[in-house]
């Protein structure tokens, strides 16, 4: 498993080995022991899978508040997407900053997003599937969102001026400045 850091400490790109043969490949998409050995010990309890029919579909920016905060391990099952994490931990040196990584079936990359970050993505091909593990169960009462296009965050979604496909919930989400984050950075005074 290859591990790459991103500009946001704690957000990590993981690329599991693929063992190819004449049939195709085999890959351990998550191995708890290997992750723990690498200092990435997360206890996942739910797997999610969604399909976005059209390229340019944006889902996000989402979080679950404590006591049901979620770390996520995200990969692309089919197609191609830009996966994004935003630090929303009050007092964090990187509060409000984002990082994005292209995940595709071909590149096999995965993004590990800890608690305290927003998560969102844009699909770059039709019929793109995302698959992700979560460290807590779905808790609708703790579910929240921040506006995907908030200029204070300034994510470059690569849409080139085209309007994205969005859910009503995501289109109406508040901006970061109008939002009281439920997360605090561990190093905060
Ligand atoms: C997130 C979630 C939704 N649902 C239901 C609620 C609703 O009826 C339907 C669609 O939900 P949503 O519109 O919230 O789906 P979606 O916009 O795909 O939400 C997801 O976006 C990405 C970016 C994330 O990081 C996820 O945690 C989740 O928030 O699925 C579950 O049953 N379990 C779940 O864990």
TrEMBL record:
Concerning CDD domains, the annotation shows:
cupin_RmlC
- Which Gene3D superfamilies is this protein grouped with? Jelly Rolls (2.60.120.10)
Q: Which GO terms describe its cellular component?
A: cytosol
Which NCBIfam families does the annotation name? rmlC
Q: Tell me the keywords, alphabetical order.
A: Isomerase
What is the enzyme's main class? isomerase
User: What phylogenetic lineage does the species belong to?
Assistant: Bacteria, Pseudomonadati, Pseudomonadota, Alphaproteobacteria, Rhodobacterales
Q: Which family does it belong to?
A: Belongs to the dTDP-4-dehydrorhamnose 3,5-epimerase family.
Q: Where is this site: Participates in a stacking interaction with the thymidine ring of dTDP-4-oxo-6-deoxyglucose?
A: 138
User: Where does this protein act, in terms of pathway?
Assistant: Carbohydrate biosynthesis; dTDP-L-rhamnose biosynthesis
A Pfam family name for this chain?
dTDP_sugar_isom
E.C. number, please? 5.1.3.13
List the residue ranges forming a coiled coil, or say none: none
Among InterPro entries, the record links this protein to:
RmlC-like (IPR000888), RmlC-like_jellyroll (IPR014710), RmlC_Cupin_sf (IPR011051)
Chemical reaction(s) catalysed: dTDP-4-dehydro-6-deoxy-alpha-D-glucose = dTDP-4-dehydro-beta-L-rhamnose
Function of the protein = Catalyzes the epimerization of the C3' and C5'positions of dTDP-6-deoxy-D-xylo-4-hexulose, forming dTDP-6-deoxy-L-lyxo-4-hexulose.
Q: List GO molecular-function terms, semicolon-separated.
A: dTDP-4-dehydrorhamnose 3,5-epimerase activity
Protein name per the record = dTDP-4-dehydrorhamnose 3,5-epimerase
Organism of this sequence: Roseivivax isoporae LMG 25204
Annotated catalytic residues: 62 (proton acceptor), 132 (proton donor)
Which domain of life, per UniProt? Bacteria
According to its UniProt entry, the protein's GO biological process terms are: dTDP-rhamnose biosynthetic process; polysaccharide biosynthetic process
Assembly mode: Homodimer.
């Amino acid at each position: 498993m290859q591990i790459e850091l991103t500009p946001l400490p704690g957000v990590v790109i993981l690329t599991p080995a693929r063992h190819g043969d004449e049939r195709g490949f085999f890959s351990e998409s998550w191995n708890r022991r290997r992750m723990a050995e690498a200092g990435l010990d997360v206890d996942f309890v739910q797997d999610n899978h969604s399909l976005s029919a059209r390229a340019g579909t944006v889902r996000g920016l989402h979080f679950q508040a404590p006591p049901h905060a979620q770390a996520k391990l995200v990969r692309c099952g089919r197609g191609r997407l830009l996966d994004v994490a935003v630090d929303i931990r009050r007092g964090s040196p990187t509060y409000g900053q984002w990082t994005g990584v292209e995940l595709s079936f071909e590149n096999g990359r995965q993004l590990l997003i800890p608690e305290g970050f927003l998560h969102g993505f844009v699909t770059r091909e039709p019929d793109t599937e995302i698959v992700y593990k979560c460290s807590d169960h779905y808790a609708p009462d703790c579910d929240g969102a921040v506006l995907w296009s908030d200029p204070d965050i300034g994510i470059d979604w690569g849409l080139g001026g085209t309007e994205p496909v969005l859910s009503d919930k995501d289109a109406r989400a508040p901006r970061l400045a109008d939002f009281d984050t439920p997360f605090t950075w561990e190093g905060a005074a």
